[in-house]
Amino acid sequence: MIVRIANAAGFLGDNLDAPRRLVESAQVDYLTLEYLAELTMSILANLREKDPEAGYARDFLTVLRSLVPALEAQEQLRMVTNGGGVNPLSCAAAAGAILKEAGVGDVAVGVVTGDDIRPRLAELRAAGCKFENLDTHEPLSSLAAPIVSANAYLGAQPIAEALAGGARIVVTGRVADASLTVGPAVHTFGWKWDDYQRLAGASVAGHLIECGAQVTGGFYTHWDEVDLAAVGYPIAEIDEQGHCVITKPAGSGGRVSRETVCEQLVYEIGDGAHYLTPDVDVDFTQVTAEEIGPDRVAVRGARGGPRPETLKVSLAYRAGFTASMQVLCYGKGAVDKARRCAEIVRRRLEDAGCKLARFHAECLGAGEAVPGLNARPDAEEVVLRLSAADPRREAVERFTRELAPLATAGPAGLAGYAAGRAPVREVFAYWPTLVPRDAVSTKVDVRKAREW
Q1: Nearest Cα residue to 258 out of 230, 303, 222
Q2: pLDDT band at residue 42, thresholds of 50, 70 and 90?
Q3: Contact, 236 vs 205, CB < 8 A?
Q4: How far is the C-alpha of 51 from the C-alpha of 48, rounded, in Å?
Q5: Per-state percent for the chain, helix, strand, coil, to nearest 5
Q6: Which residues contact 325 (CB under 8 A, 6 or more apart)?
């Protein structure tokens, strides 16, 4: 027996047509959609501050509309997504409205909540949680800036619970990426939560498909050898032992090979001997990948140990403002021209008494952007990119006013300055930390779509 679990979204902004194309060209049991990154969480939290009903991945709603025919035609198809962002209940309500309008209001939608611990930070700190920064080891008490979001990475258990409760669509907030796959596997095979080897195998499968097309040819060393315009998104065929085969829909573009699988396998794993997830401590060091057919790679050898007693927390705080602007410099002496323009902007800011916390200039095309590339001081076409950051919005706004004057008060041979002033964006900084597992409680709610 195998369960076929696909993923057709690797981040918020991925191809909106990929989920529909995948389920139309290949039959799968579960379709996962992974939308959340650390930056995404803080962006969604900012949206929720402006509108209490916002804060989820609206892309999911677009995808859901396109998948209604598949949900009607394929009775076995279920969906699991972390598209709930920082507001999974509102996401479920919006999804329920879409399904009801489409005439499938009886589809059961499950929602997982409990990851958002920002409202409980004071309570948890009073109970002894220091929320030390994993990079700097500073306690959260040293941070004076306002906190935007704080979400614990939940595991697969509440997903499996929602599926056991009859949900065909499961919407979560911040859940570990691989857990979107582990939950359906546990539900299908009835594994126990201390069945570490199987959980480890399913976690490897989830890790391989979590970034979507990265395992099927995207971000691939030999990208020029594959058709990425019609790239197929990945499918993990998982057996009862937790072993898997990675593949993609027949006839789709891209490639599944030992190389594409291994490149994704080592992506963002840090210490391969201890890849800690909320479900299991995974050891990647004995994992093997073997090509067993065209676009079919068998993956085995994952080993697992007890899950950690803490959960990772993605915490973001307000850290000032930033803006970036650019101008094309062309003709003889283009590099010198670009550097002179940067110096003009810098001096004008200083003369106006505007000292920025950070000011950065780079000549794109002259070998400055990527360390190790050969410098090209004789380039006759470069893009000058200027960036600034400062705690004061007004200082960054002043910076954005200094590019346009170069059109008539700068060197000859400039272009691309007519788009208007660059927008000033708020900066959210990342504070990685941990929270005791037993301090986080989850809730699972399953209802028919028309009841949300």
Answers
A1: 222
A2: confident
A3: yes
A4: 5
A5: 35, 25, 40
A6: 385, 386, 387, 400, 403, 421, 422
Kindly state the tokens that stand for 104.
């499938």
CB 172 within 8 A of CB 159: yes
Round to whole Å and give the CA distance between 276 and 354. 46
Length reported for the chain:
452
pLDDT value of position 131: 97
Whether the full predicted model's pTM is greater than 0.70, yes or no, is yes
Q: Are 394 and 324 in contact (CB under 8 A)?
A: no
pLDDT at 237: 98
Q: What is the pLDDT of residue 375?
A: 73
Structure tokens at 323: 């803006």
* Cα 213 to the center of its chain, rounded Å: 13
Hunting for tokens 């470069």 — which residue is that?
382
pLDDT, averaged across the chain: 95
Tell me the CA distances in angstroms from 24 to 68, 238, 245, 360, one per residue in order. Answer: 12, 21, 20, 48
| Residue 270 predicted with pLDDT over 90 | no
Strand order in the sheet with 169-172: 288-293, 296-300, 244-247, 235-239, 2-7, 30-33, 78-81, 169-172, 108-113, 443-448
Q: Pairing between strand 244-247 and 30-33?
A: unpaired
pLDDT score recorded for residue 120: 96
* Cα distances (Å, whole numbers) of residue 403 to 263, 350, 414, 415, 420: 41, 15, 11, 11, 9
Report all structural domains of the chain as residue ranges with CATH numbers, in order of start.
2-115+153-308 (no CATH), 318-430 (3.30.70)
Q: Note the pLDDT tens digit of each residue in 391-433.
A: 999 999 999 999 999 999 999 999 987 778 999 999 999 999 9
Q: How far apart are CA 240 and CA 198, in angstroms?
A: 8
**What integer pLDDT is reported at residue 155 of this predicted model?**
98
For residue 417, the model assigns a pLDDT of 79
Q: What is the DSSP letter of 116?
A: B
pLDDT at 371: 72
